[in-house]
Batch of 2 targets.
Target 1
Amino acid sequence: MDIENRYQHLPSPVMPKVPPQKLLLGQKALVTGASSGIGRAIAVALADAGADVVINYSSGEEKARILVAELAERGARAIAVRADVGDESQVEAMFRRTIDEFGTVDIVVNNAGLQQDAPFHEMTLAQWNRVMNVNLTGQFLCSRAAVREFRRRGVRPEVSCSAGKILCISSVHEVIPWAGHVNYAASKGGVMLMMKSIAQEVAPYRIRVNSICPGAIRTPINMEAWDTPKAYGELMKLIPYKRIGEADEIGRAAVWLASDYADYVHGISLFVDGGMTLYPGFETGG
Ligand code: NAD
């Protein structure tokens, strides 16, 4: 078997069954688009780390309700709040509800996102606007509401050494161009400079802002890229580490980045991608 395929059959790692560290004890988190995929995994990981969690959703109320119950069973307080992240008044109402219920918010994870793919010459303005509205404007609206609350409240040293944390869920496509997905790649490129510019501006208030850039993670958004052996084999050509990522791996990265262990980490894009950004086409020397 050649080196490329030697490990492809191995399953993703199962984490050892040690009790999760309560790195986020006493903190209040809001995760957008949290009823499925990566957002769901982040919500579970934050709750296991001791945070109370707002589960934002725009559709799929039942899945959000089930997640709230699951988090309660795991010992966390959670509420589900419906809001379209691209709608200013709904985002404002969601933050008001969060502060009414939890008193404040310490961690905001801008996860909600979608794709509306089309060859560029056929892409409609509606497809362009929809992706920008959710993936970029949504992150702007939620980040702005978060910064307002973090600045109002300031640092509570007994809870965290920062006044608040924003995690933007971006993508490897903030740096890798993506034919057929121009709107998506443009939105994530926008997230990168939005995140860094906000980070530069709000650092003096002890507010930390960072991104996580997933590579290929097994979720509904990209099922056609992994749900048949043929598709999976093709995908592996893009991943030097030769396996797909799992949503809870993004959850663990989010816990660390939101915790005081990462207090000096500010304005970065953390790539969690099995090396997808390492120009895999050059694996064999180019
Ligand atoms: P997903 O489709 O399971 O999750 C996206 C979530 O966003 C869904 O729950 C959806 O209902 C929600 N959403 C969509 N529009 C919304 C709106 N207007 N308001 C509120 N919520 C809304 O897909 P996922 O893979 O879990 O994606 C989560 C994030 O990760 C996205 O930002 C995506 O771009 C990013 N990402 C995913 C991958 C991957 O391989 N899965 C790779 C890179 C980046």
Note: The radius of gyration is 19 Å.
Target 2
Amino acid sequence: MSSRLSGIGMTSERTRTRMVERLRQQGIGDEAVLSVMQSVPRHIFVDEALASRAYEDSALPIGHGQTISQPYVVARMAELLRQGANLSRGGGRVLEVGTGCGYQAAVLARMFSEVYSVERIGELQSRARKAARELRLLNLRFKHADGMQGLAEAAPFDGITVAAAGMRVPPALLEQLAVGGRLVMPVGSNDQVLRVIDRTADGFHEQTLDAVRFVPLLAGIE
Ligand code: SAH
């Protein structure tokens, strides 16, 4: 594994710079997000056969019918989270539902103090754990579980991000959102939109943003 970090070396550094330039052109303006995306090697999260395509702006297969989200979507969700009341000050505790290959979890771990990532497919998560270990992300914890239940043992969260689309926001996730916390999640089946929910002392405030395309949020574990 360590050879994968050093192997592509300079090439991945340069292709990452191009990826970040593209993100800027696509409208990502948060410098903290751009600098973290510059620093996290994306190729170690995909199969070696696909490593050369890791920095393209596309979703790639990671096995089990799942995909690694396209860089723009990862950046956009991170940027939206960072605009939440509690997270705009830096620090913060974040829950990610849908670890997949672990790329977004790694990006979040370089941005926030504590990150918990939940995945329903055990095998995907073991691979994500390995990559996270390689990057020495000590503030990132994984749990093999159904993220529709949230993660009560670590709640409340200042930020919750869901990487799979559901027909509605699971109630457990709203319960586990701190006051001042923000949730970002794709909602819908064929026509999906990003939903942003902020919790304040007087309740939940909802906004509907960009049209998106995510794999479905499923119940139970495998
Ligand atoms: N965050 C990933 C994207 C993963 S794709 C990235 O960095 O690219 C979405 C993931 O959500 C899939 O791995 C899928 O298995 C997972 N998923 C779907 N429903 C889930 C649920 N209820 N709980 C946890 N994970 C779920």
Note: The chain has a mean pLDDT of 94.
